[in-house]
């Protein structure tokens, strides 16, 4: 089995992620918390639908994903040259699980549990076996040699799955003890043979008593059946009397109800007639007040017109005031514009003058630069000549000090007779240089410096003039901005004035008189109470038609009830009912019922006695049956105890055989790799049945703790790989061709890291893929392939 591709959506740290797995030694490199280990958690989740540590499945979904976003993990892998793809999904708020398994792009299995079962059948490994076989951490490697013997033994047995056998063995011992306790407890509660004989005699005696009571019940039951027949006949006659009585009572009640209804309708008719007469008089009154309503409505409309005219009048007065203010602003803005235009008219002329001055200053600046260059040249020339004079003067002084026997400073020959000529020649050179070169250069320098001073004075005057001119231009430009603002303000005032003038022209057609408006309001106030009274009369008179209709309906109902009352009274008179005979029949029925109840009570008492006897028989029988069951259980537990003892013996033999097979196999695999990694320095690693580790050095066996840290690290590595291989062989999963190691470098120095990587390069031929997870960024150059996360 090798991994080819992994795609994640909303899985833990990853919103979207895809990785292609290649062959060889692969480094998974990234900072702590970057999600390196999450990649292998996703692989485990894809294959088995579970994380490495079981927990709340909510942690699977990415924290930035919504409840509507699905969690999807897709893993492609090869197994025995066949391509497989497994897809796991969690969807919805409840994270409902689903899965699919493809073989050569063909769907072969669906469903979360079904896919997990198929993966287990394919790899021949459960989730725990898969983790222990193919994944290893730094903690596991160091624990192999650093842990105490008992802890190391426990860890390796857990990796190999042997702790399950230990658990079963422990359970068998505990179960055997429990069975022995239970068998002892059962012996105390079982019945003796004498107790069993007494209980069987009681059953025979109770059975005879029950048969005699049953005969008495049969006799009484026959008498009870005859009494029930008599009761049924009387009951039918009694029901006829009761039905006749109820019929006559119902007719009497209906007649009384009809009489009350007729009386109620008569009262209501009188009330409606009185109300109708009152409304007719109100109708006459309303006709006389109709003009008041019309006058009030007309006045209300006129007042609305006056209110509209008042609004126009207020708007007109506001516009007139605003126009007066605008005229003042218009006049003031116009005067300000004229003044500012006058004050800024020289702006163009001053700007041109400023440009001319700037050109002049630039010209003076260039002239000064040229003069300074000439001045510097002359100063350097004078300094050079002065140095020459100084050097010649030193030569004269040296020759004078040396005397006639000295060598010429020029040709190096002895001076002798030429002594005076040399000194004179050198003094002539000094004088000539002083007069012809230094003095001339000094005169030229003085003229240049004088010219420079004059030009600098001129420059200062121009700079001052330029400064004053710039101040004047800045002032004018400031006033130009004020001029622009005033023009904009002037334009706004002008436009507003024109707009107001147009609106005033429209309002001139409206005229408003406040006294007329006040008179109308006063008149409205006087009419308001009469108008409201008219409205109340109109509302009241709307009921006339409904009252008439209600009165007519009441009269019709009263006639209907009179007719019904006559019919019901005739029916009441026609019914024949005798109260005395009815009471006699009730007394006769009560006597028969008392007789029936007496017989029933007697029979029930006898049945209770039978039930009591049968209960006693049942209790005794159950006691006997329970004793038989307990005897059977005791025998079953004894059989179970025998079986457990046999299994314990077999399991102990199996453990001994398995240990003798597993430890040597780990030793063989680890020894071969260790010899290869150490280039033959160490030939053998021994793993004892108690999982203690020894390394053979020059034919002698030593505990692993004797060796250096680097040698122990390499030994831990090959031992962990050997355990993985042994696990694969035990499970039959020989086609798994990859391993993954998490942070195996730990805090190792560079030399240790190189040793570990060299070890992996040595053993990589045995696996098509080896993944090394690390947060050490500097080691990424040591891998054949690197995936950075």
TrEMBL record:
Keyword Transmembrane helix recorded: no
**UniProt-listed GO biological process terms:** double-strand break repair
Query: Entry's Pfam families?
Result: AAA_23 (PF13476)
What one GO molecular function would you report for this record?
A: ATP hydrolysis activity
Q: Does the keyword Calcium apply?
A: no
Q: Which residues cross the membrane?
A: none
Q: Which UniProt keywords apply?
A: Coiled coil, Exonuclease, Hydrolase, Nuclease
Q: Where is the Rad50/SbcC-type AAA domain?
A: 6-222
Q: Which residues form a coiled coil?
A: 262-367, 431-493, 589-623
The protein's name in its UniProt record: SbcCD-like exonuclease, ATPase subunit
What organism is the protein native to? Arcobacter venerupis
């Amino acid at each position: 089995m090798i991994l080819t591709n992994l795609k994640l959506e909303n899985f833990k740290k990853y919103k979207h992620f895809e990785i292609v797995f290649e062959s060889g030694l692969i480094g998974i490199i990234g900072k702590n918390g970057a999600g390196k280990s999450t990649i292998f958690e996703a692989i485990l989740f894809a294959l088995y639908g579970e994380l490495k540590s079981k927990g709340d499945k909510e942690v699977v979904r990415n924290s930035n994903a919504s409840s509507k976003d699905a969690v999807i993990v897709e893993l492609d892998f090869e197994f025995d040259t066949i391509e497989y793809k497994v897809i796991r999904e969690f969807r919805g708020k409840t994270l409902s699980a689903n899965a699919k398994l493809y073989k050569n792009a063909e769907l072969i299995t669906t469903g979360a549990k079904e896919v997990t079962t198929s993966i287990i059948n394919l790899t021949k490994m459960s989730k725990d076996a898969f983790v222990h076989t193919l994944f290893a951490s730094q903690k596991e490697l160091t624990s192999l040699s650093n842990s105490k013997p008992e802890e190391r033994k426990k860890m390796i047995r857990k990796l190999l799955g042997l702790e399950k056998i230990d658990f079963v063995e422990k359970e068998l011992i505990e179960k055997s003890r429990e069975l022995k306790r239970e068998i002892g407890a059962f012996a105390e509660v079982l019945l003796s043979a004498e107790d069993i004989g007494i209980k069987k005699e009681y059953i025979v005696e109770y059975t005879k008593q029950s048969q005699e009571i049953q005969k008495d019940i049969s006799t009484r039951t026959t008498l009870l059946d005859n009494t029930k027949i008599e009761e049924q006949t009387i009951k039918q006659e009694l029901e006829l009397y009761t039905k006749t009585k109820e019929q006559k009572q119902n007719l009497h009640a209906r007649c009384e109800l009809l009489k009350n209804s007729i009386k109620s309708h008569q009262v209501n008719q009188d009330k409606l007639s009185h109300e109708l007469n009152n409304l007719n008089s109100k109708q006459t009154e309303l006709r006389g007040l109709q003009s008041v309503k019309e006058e009030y409505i007309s006045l209300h409309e006129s007042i609305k017109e006056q209110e509209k005219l008042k609004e126009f009048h207020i708007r007109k007065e506001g516009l007139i005031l605003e126009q007066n203010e605008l005229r003042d602003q218009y006049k003031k803005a116009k005067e300000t514009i004229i003044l500012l235009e006058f004050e800024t008219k020289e702006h163009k002329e001053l700007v041109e003058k400023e440009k001319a001055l700037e050109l002049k200053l630039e010209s003076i600046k260039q002239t000064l630069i040229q003069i300074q260059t000439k001045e510097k040249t002359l100063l350097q020339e004078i300094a050079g000549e002065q140095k020459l004079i100084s050097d010649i003067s030193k030569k004269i002084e040296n020759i004078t000090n040396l005397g006639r026997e000295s060598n010429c400073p020029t040709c190096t020959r002895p001076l002798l007779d030429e002594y005076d000529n040399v000194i004179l020649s050198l003094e002539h050179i000094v004088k000539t240089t002083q007069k012809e070169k230094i003095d001339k250069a000094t005169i030229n320098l003085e003229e240049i410096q004088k010219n420079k001073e004059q030009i600098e004075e001129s420059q200062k005057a121009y700079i001052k003039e330029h400064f004053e001119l710039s101040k004047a231009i800045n002032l004018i430009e400031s006033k130009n901005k004020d001029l622009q603002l005033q023009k904009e303000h002037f334009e706004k005032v002008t436009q507003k004035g024109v707009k107001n003038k147009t609106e005033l022209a429209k309002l001139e057609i409206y005229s408003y008189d406040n006294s007329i408006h006040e008179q109308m309001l006063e008149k409205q106030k006087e009419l308001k109470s009469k108008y409201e009274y008219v409205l109340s009369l109109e509302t009241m008179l709307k009921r006339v038609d409904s009252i008439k209709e209600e009165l007519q309906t009441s009269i019709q109902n009263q006639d209907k009830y009179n007719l019904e009352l006559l019919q019901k009274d005739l029916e009441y008179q026609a019914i024949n009912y005798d109260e005395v005979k009815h009471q006699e029949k009730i007394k006769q029925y009560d006597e028969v019922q008392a007789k029936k109840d007496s017989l029933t009570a007697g029979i029930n008492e006898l049945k209770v006695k039978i039930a009591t006897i049968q209960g006693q028989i049942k209790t005794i029988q159950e006691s006997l049956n329970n004793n038989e069951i307990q005897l059977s259980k005791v025998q079953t537990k004894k059989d179970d105890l025998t079986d457990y003892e046999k299994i314990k013996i077999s399991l102990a033999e199996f453990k001994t055989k398995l240990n003798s097979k597993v430890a040597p196999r780990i030793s063989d695999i680890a020894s071969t790799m260790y010899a290869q990694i150490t280039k033959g320095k160490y030939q053998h690693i021994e793993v004892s049945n108690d999982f203690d580790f020894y390394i053979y050095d020059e034919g002698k066996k030593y505990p692993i703790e004797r060796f250096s840290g680097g040698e122990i690290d390499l030994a831990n590595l090959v031992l962990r790989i050997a355990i993985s291989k042994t696990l694969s062989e035990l499970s039959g999963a020989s086609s798994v061709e990859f391993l993954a190691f998490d942070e195996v470098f730990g805090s190792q120095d560079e030399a240790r890291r190189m040793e570990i990587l060299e070890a992996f390069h040595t053993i990589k031929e045995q696996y098509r893929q080896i993944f090394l997870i690390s947060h050490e960024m500097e080691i990424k150059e040591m891998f054949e392939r690197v995936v950075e996360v």
